[in-house]
Amino acid sequence: MEIPESIISQIDELKRDTSSGANELALKAINIIQNQLNLIESPNMDLKELLYDLAHKFIKARPSMAPLINSIGYIITSLDKFTKESIVNAIKGYYDEQKRKKSLLELNFKTLLTKMDLSEPRIMLISYSSTVLNLLLKTKDLNFIVYILESRPKLEGRKVAQELSEKYETHLIVDAAMGKFINEIDMVFIGIDSILRDGSIINKIGTYPLSVLAKSNKKPVYAIGDTFKYNLRSHFDLPVEIVKKPKNEIFDKYNPKLSIENYYFDITPPEYIEGIISDLGIISITNFLKEIENELPISWFKQFI
To answer: What is the pLDDT of residues 14-64, one digit of tens each?
Structure first.
């Protein structure tokens, strides 16, 4: 069964999406699968080939987006047959699993804040992470003071600043000002796009220098995200490419002798991260990696290499 053009268009849109967070992209992929299922009338048709074809296209569209790939893997490995009803039930199970992870993440985030014993935690953020944003908005009884980097070139930090400023004292600063304000804060929270096999973290460009700066000033950096952020390409020693983005987002008056370097992501080595706040607890990156194979279906990905 061929994938219809309407679904291909949705996958292309997913590929071009530069504003959604990693978890949001995963949910969009699951929604595309649901849209495909809605086009199928027969409840008993074997849809294995179709589902695998969709999985290939999702992985090709966003090869380094770990939550999307792990979400697809969770659904595939939940199936003993590939009928419409079975896939619908697997998707329901996926949403239940996401709720469980989210609940544990919220609990562990509160535990960290309790241990910090700060009535007004002063934090620095970079870019847009739906996970970090939602945790902060849901927190009660604490009055955060937030410094958010605007996050060039797409300026996602502005969106975060607008939302958080409705609840907390919020300072929007240019990326280059991180050093000026680093001693105003207690800690740094960063989102996670992917965690690599060596414990390095892929996140919005600027995360690496921010983490180095924070550590040199004795400000702990906590990465926040669940086990679905583990990068299976890295696990199987496949290259994880940081793709160069359009030049004109940086400067529109270039010439052949001017090289314009525009990247959305960078890689932060694990030694600059105090710990990961995840569904597994508040743990070191080393312990997170030890637990990951017990938490994630991994071997399924071999057939997509």
So the answer is: 999 988 888 899 999 999 999 999 999 988 899 999 999 999 999 999 988
CATH class of the structural domain 5-99: mainly alpha
Residue 21 has a pLDDT of 82
Residue at 16: amino acid letter: R
Residue 55 corresponds to which tokens in the numbers above?
């999985």
By CB neighbour count within 10 A (0-12 exposed, 13-18 middle, 19+ buried), where does 129 fall?
A: buried
Q: Does position 135 have pLDDT exceeding 90, yes or no? A: yes
The residue assigned the tokens 């893997």 is 73
CB 278 within 8 A of CB 108: yes
CB atoms within 10 A of CB 36: 23
Spell 41-79 as b/e; 16+ CB within 10 A means b. Answer: eeeeeebeebbeebbebbbebbbbbbbbbbbbbbbbebb
Cα 114 from Cα 167, distance rounded (Å): 20
Long-range CB contacts (within 8 A, 24+) of 270-274:
270/198, 270/199, 270/200, 270/201, 271/215, 272/208, 272/211, 272/212, 272/214, 272/215, 272/221, 273/199, 273/201, 273/211, 273/221, 273/222, 273/223, 274/220, 274/221, 274/222
Please give the Cα distance from 299 to 248 (Å, whole number). Answer: 41
pLDDT in tens, 188-200: 999 999 999 999 9
Q: What is the pLDDT of residue 19?
A: 80
- pTM comes to 0.92
Give domain limits for the chain. Answer: 5-99, 102-304
Burial class of 141 by CB neighbour count within 10 A (0 to 12, 13 to 18, 19+): exposed
CATH 3.40.50.10470 fits 102-304, yes or no: yes
Give yes or no for a contact between 14 and 62, defined as CB atoms under 8 angstroms apart. Answer: yes
Catalytic residue numbers read 193
* Residue 282, strand partner residues: 277
